[in-house]
TrEMBL record, chain A:
Keyword terms, alphabetized: Cell inner membrane, Cell membrane, Hydrolase, Membrane, Sugar transport, Transmembrane, Transmembrane helix, Transport
Designated name of the protein: Xylose transport system permease protein XylH
Organism the protein comes from: Herpetosiphon aurantiacus (strain ATCC 23779 / DSM 785 / 114-95)
Main function: Part of the binding-protein-dependent transport system for D-xylose. Probably responsible for the translocation of the substrate across the membrane.
GO MF annotations, alphabetized: hydrolase activity; transmembrane transporter activity
UniProtKB/TrEMBL annotation, chain B:
Membrane topology: Peripheral membrane protein
A matching Pfam family: ABC_tran
PANTHER family attached to this UniProt entry: CARBOHYDRATE TRANSPORT ATP-BINDING PROTEIN MG119-RELATED, XYLOSE IMPORT ATP-BINDING PROTEIN XYLG
UniProt GO molecular function: ATP binding; ATP hydrolysis activity
Name of the molecule in the record: ABC transporter related
Length: 405, 512
């Protein structure tokens, strides 16, 4: 109650003063807390690694290394928001990689056929697990624990204990290639197309924010004061452009980043603007109330698992293409990174709460930690300890800020 | 002089931005039943939390004097040690443990960590006898009714050698006979010298058993009424609670009743777990356009089960029977179909079944009819805000904005959100299950007004309620239910509490 009053007052204050900034962060702690943490982590490792972290080559690497985690985390977000969990994503990704290996390396199928088959298999696996969870009411933890074993086993059966590779180069392009530069041309030191894409992207984001602000105004909802709003958008535009500049001074936008941005935009839209998204949040918030409001809760749960299967398949394909081989051990431990990203991003373990924005930040926190620690020479053993501690601390802050609010 | 058991003096408790209690005084004598009444949010529960140590010493100002000693409780166990035991509205029993295990949970009869079950069970038996339960101490809590569970809670309190028993809405979920038994028990305790503080919305119970009544309003003590000096009427208590005369507890009603709109015929429902138990037995009833029909009956008589089974088979198994709307049979086999056919069901348990508490008012209101604010399944947010703001104004939902989370609303405002949700689904037939449970007097009136308006708009309204005055005050026609059957039907003009109870009793007698 008092917090809301505060926002009201601060939005009325016309001037740009320190108090309103502090207030703003207080009131939006949950949304921006992790973003601030990410910036701190980036700055820390930038310093620790003598500037290696933000070098163009390394930034590109961080994106390539984490792309499949982000893809799977988008599916995991919906699963967790709906009040479930999926432990099988790593095994499913490995199995799909094995199928891709069989079709492309052993049998020489056209890529498009192999692609379609892999996505269909992912959907079928999701449907299989979703069936047990949604219609047979077996806890997702158990169903997907079984799935984790089943699909890891099937991967081993398919590969017979060896690796399959190398893959056709056109398949690898998806994960390791970069977009062309028709505007700047091959001679240009900077990748001009990348910069233009970045500018367009920044413009879209500012436009959407303006529309949202106008909307809130027309309903007399508290909005940020104008100077604060400009400062916030300038910061966002600055970060996007700086990021694109860094990429442009290496090879430009990686293909996989385009895929990623497309998926992130799609899932932001689905979770925020569509009927099905709204219903998934309601289902996770209170399943009984959602059911009695006519929400087809069982069918929705089923769909979220199919969606997860498809995204696990895409993640598996990206990973396999990057590794250039399908291996029995692929994807081990992915489920943990994926689930951690979602929770670090502020999702609630009891369902109903979580955002795509948060998940992306969560995945970046994990990714930058991994990369930064590796460059700084922290041993793999200690890396795990630190990641575990970060997960615990992040969720603790989230829980305690919720209790206060 | 030592007649006073407890005195709370000048208690002030502030939460950030809100003064929840302002200089509150409360005096409870030995062997007294002291009722604490007030509207929701008046500060009753906060005061009791201060007393029992939930809010430790130092987080409030003022003093607590118990048996002549000033007390500074740091937690609940400190107050329990002195014999102050609080029984919360939500029962704190563990369902899959036995009575004995629950009673001695936390202070087991053990030596060196090994429990002596023989003593525990013997002690439990003695305690159960005191509260009038004949169950075996090994019975699991989950196998007992709510009324008996409440008695187990009290037995648990007795095990702690209680001197002052605090009961927060103990009869809210009990039927009449269980409530009666519980109040009798309080009177017995009084004889034994145990005092009780009774928080209750049921004013008839309060005026029946209380020796003194303290009225709280807006966090302040308004008055303490002595019931021995003069008999205190319910109206007198209400006047203290709301600060004005509430001359009419029900809004005036001018019914314009049309043709039969909704009809249920030969409806049978079996228990979802015990397939041989018939919960609704051959029920038939009709509701006309613009009519408010009441379904009276005791708790467990099958009213909620009847309503939920009609609403998309949301309860029960092997359901048979027919449902007609405007003379044509309709399909209600899933909740989606029932809603599409114009039926709405407002649940008796709004927190568990009615609201997504972590969501805002807006998202809750549109949940049952999202396609109406969406195009091609993309939500039109400005339209959604417009619609929900309209309901917020129309139904006077007191809130900071439609984005406020429903968990922070008072009971009455929460109920208005649930009502808005179903109004937005624009149903023709509304089934309201205990629409005013746990809602204070002022908000009740508002809810009644909304219900009246709906009937006026030509909807068929069914009201299920355990409070007979509410049924009598609101409805045009009344069905009486017992043991899953309809045992009586009467126009409200001819009905009285006695008549309804008689219907129920007669059937009990006729049972073999």
């Amino acid at each position: 109650m008092s917090a809301e009053l505060k926002t009201n007052e601060s939005s009325k204050a016309a001037g740009f003063n320190f108090a309103t900034v502090v207030d703003f962060f207080k009131n939006n702690m949950r949304e921006y807390g992790m973003l601030v943490a990410l910036v701190i982590i980036v700055l820390y490792f930038q310093f620790q690694t003598d500037g290696v972290l933000l070098q163009p080559l390394n930034v590109t690497n961080v994106i390539l290394q984490n792309s499949y985690i982000v893809v799977m985390a988008l599916g995991m977000l919906l699963i967790i928001v709906a009040g479930h969990i999926d432990l099988s994503v790593g095994s499913v990704a490995a199995f799909v990689g094995a199928v891709a290996g069989y079709m492309l390396v052993e049998k020489d199928y056209p890529i498009i056929v192999a692609f379609a088959a892999c996505i269909a298999i992912g959907a079928a696996i999701g449907a299989f697990q979703g069936y047990w969870v949604a219609f047979r009411k077996i806890p997702a933890f158990i169903v997907t624990l079984a799935g984790m074993l089943i699909f890891r086993g099937l991967t081993l059966v398919m590969l017979g204990g060896t690796s399959l590779g190398p893959f056709p180069s056109s398949f690898r392009e998806m994960s390791t290639g970069f977009i062309g530069d028709p505007i700047g041309g091959a001679e240009s030191a900077l990748h001009i197309t990348t910069l233009i894409v970045g500018l367009a992207f920044a413009a879209i984001i500012v436009y959407l924010d303006l529309v949202g602000r106008k909307n809130s105004r027309s309903f007399n909802f508290p909005v940020m004061s104008t100077p604060l709003f400009i400062a916030k958008n300038a910061l966002i535009v600055g970060i996007i452009l700086a990021f694109c500049y860094i990429l442009a001074s290496y090879e430009g936008l990686p293909n996989v980043l385009l895929v990623l941005i497309g998926l992130i935009a799609l899932y932001m839209f689905v979770t925020k603007k569509t009927v099905i998204g709204r219903r998934i949040y309601a289902l996770g918030g209170n399943e009984k109330a959602a059911k009695l409001s006519g929400v087809p809760t069982d069918r929705l749960t089923f769909y979220t698992f199919i969606n997860m299967g498809v995204l696990a398949a895409i993640g598996g394909l990206i990973f396999t293409a990057r590794l250039n081989s399908a291996t029995p051990k692929a994807g081990t431990g992915f489920e943990l990174d994926v689930i951690a990203s979602v929770f670090i991003g502020g999702a609630s373990a009891s369902g109903g709460i979580g955002t795509v924005f948060g998940v992306v930040i969560g995945a970046l926190v994990m990714g930058v930690l991994n990369n930064g620690m590796s460059i700084a020479g922290v041993s793999v053993d200690w890396q795990q300890v630190i990641k575990g501690a970060v997960l615990l601390v992040a969720v603790y802050f989230d829980v305690s800020s919720k209790n206060k609010g | 002089m030592s007649d006073v058991l407890l005195e709370m003096r000048g208690i002030t408790k502030t939460f950030p931005g809100v003064k929840a209690l302002n200089d509150v005084n409360l005096q409870v004598r030995r062997a007294e039943i002291h009722a604490l009444v007030g509207e929701n949010g008046a500060g009753k529960s906060t005061l009791m939390k201060v007393l029992s140590g939930v809010y430790p010493h130092g987080t409030y100002t003022g003093e607590i004097i118990f048996e002549g000693q000033e007390c500074r409780f740091n937690d609940i166990s400190a107050s329990e040690k002195l014999g102050i035991v609080i029984i919360h509205q939500e029962l704190a029993l563990i369902p899959f443990l036995s009575i004995a295990e629950n009673i001695f949970l936390g202070h087991e009869t053990a030596s060196r960590g090994v429990i002596n079950w023989n003593t525990a069970i013997a002690k439990t038996q003695a305690l159960l006898k005191k509260v009038g339960l004949s169950e075996s101490p090994n019975t699991l809590i989950t196998d007992m009714g709510v009324g008996k569970q409440q008695l187990v809670e009290i037995a648990k309190a007795l095990a702690k050698e209680v001197k002052l028993l605090i009961l927060d809405e103990p009869t809210a979920s009990l039927n009449e006979s269980d409530s009666e038994a519980l109040l009798d028990l309080l009177l017995q305790f009084k004889q034994q010298g145990i005092s009780s503080i009774l928080i209750s919305h049921k004013l008839n119970e309060v005026s029946q058993v209380a020796d003194a009544i303290t009225v709280l309003r807006d966090g302040a003590t308004i008055e303490t009424l002595d019931c021995h000096k003069e008999p205190i009427s319910e109206d007198r208590i209400i006047r203290g609670m709301v600060g004005r005369d509430l001359s009419h507890r029900f809004p005036p009603r001018e019914a314009t009743i049309g043709e039969t709109m909704f009809e249920v015929r030969d409806w049978n429902v079996y228990h979802p777990l015990h397939a041989e138990r018939k919960v609704v037995d051959n029920v038939s009833f009709t509701v006309r356009k613009g009519e408010i029909v009441g379904i009276a009956g005791l708790m467990g008589s099958g009213r909620t089960e009847l309503a939920m089974s009609i609403f998309g088979h949301a309860y029960g198994k092997h359901i048979s029977g027919h449902v007609y709307k405007n003379g044509r049979e309709i399909d209600v086999r899933t909740i989606q179909k029932a809603i599409r056919n114009g039926i709405a069901y407002v649940t008796e348990d709004r927190k568990s079944y009615g609201l997504v508490l972590i969501d805002g008012i807006k998202n809750n209101i549109t949940l049952a009819n999202l396609p109406a604010v969406a195009r091609n399944s993309v939500i039109n947010e400005p339209k959604e805000l417009r619609v929900t703001n309209q309901y917020r104004d129309d139904l006077a939902i007191r809130s900071s904005s439609v984005l406020q989370k429903t968990v922070n609303l008072s009971g009455g405002n929460q109920q208005k959100v649930v009502l808005s949700k179903w109004l937005f689904a624009s149903p023709d037939i509304l089934i309201l299950d205990e629409p005013t449970r746990g809602i204070d007097v002022g908000a009740k009136y508002e809810i009644y007004t909304i219900i009246n308006r709906l009937a006026q708009e030509g909807k068929a309204v069914i009201v299920i309620s355990s409070e007979l005055p509410e049924i009598l005050g609101m409805c045009d026609r009344i069905y009486v239910m017992n043991e899953g059957q309809i045992v009586g039907e009467m126009p409200a003009a001819d009905a009285s509490q006695e008549k309804i109870m008689k219907c129920i009793m007669q059937q009990e007698v006729n049972q073999p």
